[in-house]
Amino acid sequence: MEQTIRTLVRKLEVRFTLAESLKTVGAARAERPMNTSGRLGPSSPGRDDVMNLTVELELRLFEFVCDAKRFITPARIIPKNWEPLLAWLSFHSAGLAELEEEYVAGLVDELRYQIKKLDKLLNPDAPLKLGSEPWRPAGHIVAAAAAYGFRVTPGQLRQLVFRGVIDSRPGGARNLYRASQVLAYLRGEPTEKDTPQ
Q1: Sign of the C-alpha dihedral, residues 32, 33, 38, 39?
Q2: Which of 17, 94, 163, 166 could be disulfide-bonded to 181 (CB atoms 3.0-4.6 Å)?
Q3: Edge-to-edge order in the sheet of strand 136-137
Q4: Which residue pairs, CB below 8 angstroms and at least 24 apart, start in 155-160?
Q5: Which ranges in 28-81 belong to alpha helices (H)?
Q6: Parallel, antiparallel, or unpaired: how do β-strands 168-171 and 174-177 relate?
Q7: What is the rounded distance in angstroms from the CA atom of residue 121 to the CA atom of residue 21?
Q8: Contacts of 11 (CB under 8 A, 6+ apart)
Q9: CB atoms near residue 99 (< 10 Å)
């Protein structure tokens, strides 16, 4: 568990460092204070979403450190800043791993949660990682092909499996197929056959 905590702390340090660099980069804030003369005041650079998220995550991290600090070394006062908090967690990871299992699991979950939140902020356009494509019965494949303007029958699907063009797997009394393989074949694209699962 000690190594898990250290690894997660290192990952979180990298993400907080990247978030720090985004605090002062970007478009001017949309909300600008009005001067007494009625003109808009100076606009500060940076992104509010980055600042708000880092403050929220630092407060959450501070609560975990304060809980653990009672059992490890209460002599040092730690500010609510991610750098000293993560340095403290990394330094005391061996002691943290020996605390109650419930607390350690909560800490690991919190570190993973913060990594996930910062990843969403830093890479908002990252593609979603989906699981493997589900296997579907022939009726579903026929309907999917018709939606794309192709006509295929269950008999033709069996023939494509016999020729080795697409994969199938038994699903009770029916054969199951992957729509992406069938559509790729119908479009004339090379099919990427998966190994049967």
Answers
A1: negative
A2: 166
A3: 136-137, 174-177, 168-171
A4: 157/182, 160/185
A5: 48-69
A6: antiparallel
A7: 13
A8: 111, 115
A9: 16
Question: Using CA atoms, how far apart are residues 89 and 53, in angstroms rounded to an integer?
Answer: 20
What are 96's two structure tokens? Answer: 């943290």
Which single residue is written with the structure tokens 């967690």? 89
Give the global pTM.
0.53
Note the pLDDT tens digit of each residue in 121-139.
887 766 655 567 788 889 8
Give the tens place of pLDDT for each residue, 49-88.
788 888 888 888 888 888 888 777 666 778 888 888 888 8
Contact predicate 150/186, CB 8 Å: yes
- Residues listed for the chain: 197
Calpha distance 132→67 (Å, rounded) = 41
Distance CA(189)–CA(68), nearest Å, equals: 57
- List the structure tokens of 34: 């009005």
Beta strand pairing call for 168-171 and 136-137: unpaired
How many Å apart are CA 48 and CA 29, to the nearest integer?
7
